[in-house]
Amino acid sequence: MESRPEQGSSLPTQKKFSVFGLVAVVILAAIFSAVLLDRVQFVRKYTDLAVFKDFSSTFQTTIRMVHGLWYMNGRPKGTKTVLLENGKIIGVTPTGWPVNGIFGSSEGSAQGCVEVWNSVVAKSSAMASLSHRDMFTAGYKQGVCTYTLNTQPGFRITYNINTGSVATIADVPLR
Question: Bigger pLDDT: 155 or 127?
């Protein structure tokens, strides 16, 4: 004999997911993912900017150090190099600003700008472990070297080989 539930009594019933509920969950997951992705991208840009400003500061300090050594040596006319404490030779302009590591042979070219970076900064800092190709693309125009960060093309360092001026440019809105 089969027993039937009495009227008014409740039996556990199974509830099924509705299509509407499933769509709502997917939409909420997409919204949360988009917000999270946006935050991650913001943090990445902000971190890249902080690291790039640190590179710029190291670059500027080292450029000024080389110029200071040239100046302390009496600003000798016709000098094409400065000898650093570590024995490294840096090529300099007639006004004492670094041009590259080997007597200015590539001066006036993007390769000369790479040589400036490699001889002045990469050998004297934590950046030595990275190849310039991993970090930036170098360019040269009218006495100015431009180093553009590969991961954020709006981040650039400029170096004027005639005046020693170093500037950090961040043309990327951080939002």
Answer: 155
